[in-house]
Write a structure and sequence with these properties.
The chain is an all-alpha fold. It contains one helix and no strands. Helix content is 98%, strand content 0%. The mean pLDDT is 91. The chain is rod-shaped and about 170 Å long.
């Protein structure tokens, strides 16, 4: 009777061990699946990072081009402004010269009129 009980206990323990082994295998399988998903996600993230890095390099390159264009446009605008200022200065000098000439003629006319009046 004790032998049968021990045999029964042993079988019960073997059945439990088999259940634990099955449970362990299921968890192992789940872990392997999760690991595979994690590896795939990591690879996808690396691909996305690579695409983002390329995009950032392209943006930086375009920004440098924009900066160059802005610098060139600013340089050209400064040159145009300088030319316009010089043109306005020249026109002003011509106008001042004409006004001075007119003033000179009016003074001469006024002196002549004063001389005639005194006579």
């Amino acid at each position: 009777e004790k032998l049968q009980k021990l045999t029964g206990d042993t079988q019960s323990l073997e059945e439990r061990m088999a259940q634990y082994q099955e449970e362990s295998n299921r968890w192992k399988q789940k872990c392997m699946e999760k690991t595979k998903m994690l590896d795939e996600s990591t690879a996808h993230i690396k691909e996305l990072q690579s695409v983002m890095d390329e995009g950032m390099m392209e943006i930086r390159s375009k920004q440098e081009n924009i900066d160059d264009i802005v610098a060139e446009a600013t340089k050209e605008e400064k040159a145009r402004s300088k030319d316009n200022l010089q043109r306005l200065s020249d026109e002003y000098e011509v106008l001042i010269a004409k006004k001075s000439e007119k003033i000179g003629k009016l003074r001469t006319t006024l002196r002549s009129a004063n001389v005639k009046r005194r006579q």
